[in-house]
């Protein structure tokens, strides 16, 4: 299959180009498109055959359910049931935006998309291309991140092509996904709303609105592996580039020292080293430094892109130091810990 690349203006999506993509979706095809979080691989959410193709194209296990994307807050009533009052509050404040809610699903939602669960993950994105596509289709769009299973999520159309060229019908090139990491997933089917995946909408913001909210225990301690997973996606290793990632935890001064020790060690082993630099780390010859910014917004926005760029430069190891876990920092550290082969204390 030849994958078409369709350039669309992210500020003012051209209707003609959106319609080309919609006709692919109507025929049961797959179209990757930008959202404000990462690029998604979209299919008509009410067409089981099309949904099946997503799992095949990504090599995604069939028990790992997909997120439904809608273009209108009111549509949540069509695809869910028994909506609690907390959902209404959250929708009012955070939609359109990077917050996915887990609710009970209505009977029109195909089970193949929910991994057989009777719940649904649903959100309304804020990206104009995504909204225009869903709106013109008239059905919800299911869209996991548009990467091969286990790889970092794409934040540019070229990342999608490097994983899925020839396996999907089209990709919309709508420039970069600004947030850079996947949406927050909040389970509203539990007594206390539970964060299953941290993201841009932080614990602090949710707590502020709801008063009661908690992290799923698997996101917290070291015992995580022993706990029952709630979101099937949680049990898989994720977000990893080909290079081995080493995460260095500790104070700024100690991590600086530790990183230089690691550089020495790997240079002796003739390894090509990449450093993802989010504060000042003194440069060393023959090491590829990738500066991704000091604010959490910039770090999130550039993280996956820098994984992919260092992979393209064929580095053997990528070293990065921890950041503090307040607000968006928790989500960034969650992705880093999942991607890391080794976590070193400085
Ligand atoms: P992705 O779109 O690839 O970023 O992955 C979607 C995430 O949503 C996965 O981690 C899924 O496990 C999670 N998810 C989707 N539907 C549900 C559901 N009904 N209950 C819990 N988690 C879900
Ligand atoms: Mg994904």
From TrEMBL:
Gene3D superfamilies: DHBP synthase, Threonylcarbamoyl-AMP synthase, C-terminal domain
Catalytic activity: L-threonine + hydrogencarbonate + ATP = L-threonylcarbamoyladenylate + diphosphate + H2O
Start and end residues of each YrdC-like domain: 15-201
GO biological process, one term: regulation of translational fidelity
Alphabetical list of InterPro entries matching this protein: DHBP_synth_RibB-like_a/b_dom, Sua5-like_dom, Sua5/YwlC_C, Sua5_C, T(6)A37_SUA5, TC-AMP_synthase_SUA5
Residues noted as binding L-threonine in the record, renumbered to the chain: 37, 69, 123, 143, 183
Predominant subcellular localization, coarse grouping: cytoplasm
UniProt KW keywords: ATP-binding, Cytoplasm, Nucleotide-binding, Nucleotidyltransferase, Transferase, tRNA processing
EC number: 2.7.7.87
Database matches in Pfam families: Sua5_C, Sua5_yciO_yrdC
Entry similarity comment: Belongs to the SUA5 family.
Protein name: Threonylcarbamoyl-AMP synthase
Organism of this sequence: Candidatus Nitrosarchaeum limnium BG20
């Amino acid at each position: 299959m030849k994958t078409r690349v369709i350039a669309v203006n992210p500020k003012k999506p051209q209707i003609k180009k959106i319609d080309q993509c919609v006709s692919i979706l109507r025929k049961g095809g797959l179209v990757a498109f930008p959202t404000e979080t990462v690029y998604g691989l979209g299919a008509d959410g009410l067409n089981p055959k099309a949904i099946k193709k997503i799992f095949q194209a990504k090599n995604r296990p069939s028990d790992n359910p997909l997120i439904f994307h809608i273009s209108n807050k009111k549509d949540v009533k069509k695809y869910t049931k028994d909506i609690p009052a907390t959902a209404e509050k959250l929708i009012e404040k955070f939609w359109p935006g990077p917050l996915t809610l887990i609710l009970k699903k209505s009977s029109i939602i195909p089970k193949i998309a929910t991994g057989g669960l009777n719940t649904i993950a649903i959100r309304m994105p804020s990206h104009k291309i995504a909204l225009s596509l869903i709106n013109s289709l008239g059905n919800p769009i299911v869209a996991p991140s548009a990467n091969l299973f286990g790889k970092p999520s794409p934040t540019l159309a070229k990342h999608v092509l490097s994983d899925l060229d020839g396996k999907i019908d089209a990709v919309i090139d709508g420039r970069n996904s600004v947030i850079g990491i996947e949406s927050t997933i909040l389970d509203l089917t539990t007594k206390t709303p539970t964060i299953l995946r941290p993201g841009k909408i932080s614990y602090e913001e949710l707590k502020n609105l709801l008063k009661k909210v908690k992290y799923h225990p698997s996101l917290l301690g070291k015992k995580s592996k022993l706990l029952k997973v709630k979101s099937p996606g949680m049990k898989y290793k994720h977000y990893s580039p080909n290079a081995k990632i080493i995460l260095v935890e500790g104070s700024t001064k100690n991590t600086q020292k530790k990183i230089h020790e690691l550089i020495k060690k790997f240079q002796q082993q003739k390894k090509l080293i990449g450093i993802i630099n989010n504060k000042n780390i003194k440069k060393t010859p023959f090491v590829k430094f990738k500066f991704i910014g000091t604010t959490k917004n910039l770090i999130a926005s550039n993280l996956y892109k820098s994984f992919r760029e260092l992979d393209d430069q064929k580095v053997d190891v990528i070293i990065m130091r921890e950041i503090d876990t307040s607000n968006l920092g928790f989500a960034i550290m969650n992705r880093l810990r999942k991607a890391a082969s080794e976590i070193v204390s400085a």
